[in-house]
Automatic annotation (TrEMBL):
Transmembrane segments: none annotated. One of its GO terms (biological process) is regulation of DNA-templated transcription. This is Regulator. InterPro entries: Rsd/AlgQ_sf (IPR038309), Sigma70_reg_Rsd_AlgQ (IPR007448). It comes from Methylomonas koyamae. Belongs to the Rsd/AlgQ family. Keywords: Transcription, Transcription regulation. Pfam families: Rsd_AlgQ.
Length: 141
């Protein structure tokens, strides 16, 4: 295994671990519907929001930036990375917006729109994961 392949594998494994932890917590929160007890869901949302930001940061500033800086001569990989950037960036923005809305520090914490916001975020995360899977697959081959 070359040093470059080892580095790529490290990034991919780290991303997959973050993603697995995030998705597990997402499912736990989704199972709490209806979200009538803000006191019960709030700590989980705080933890989820922190993990969400860590995950999108690792993907956006870790994997994606790594691909752009280390894809020596891999024109197919660079082309794909450039093509998906607008969608990938949009999913990052969606995650940040969700995190800001449900951050534990908010005083007027309301769960009125949580179900629809969580559903919309889930769609964006699923889309992001598909893009990452393809990007990671190209990175490792």
């Amino acid at each position: 295994m070359t040093e470059t392949t080892s580095t790529h594998l490290h990034w991919v494994e780290a991303l997959r671990e973050e993603r697995s932890a995030l998705w597990s917590l997402y499912c736990q929160i989704a199972e709490m519907k209806p979200f009538s007890d803000a006191g019960q869901v709030r700590p989980m949302l705080s933890q989820f929001s922190q993990l969400l930001i860590d995950y999108v940061s690792l993907g956006h500033f870790g994997i994606y930036e790594h691909v752009l800086s280390d894809a020596k001569g891999a024109s197919e990989l660079l082309s794909y990375a450039g093509k998906i950037y607008p969608v990938y960036s949009n999913t990052t923005e969606s995650a940040v917006t969700f995190s800001e809305r449900y951050d534990d520090g908010r005083r007027n914490f309301k769960t009125d729109n949580l179900a629809s916001d969580l559903s919309e975020l889930g769609e964006h995360l699923a889309e992001r994961m598909e893009l990452e899977d393809r990007l990671c697959s190209m990175l490792l081959h």
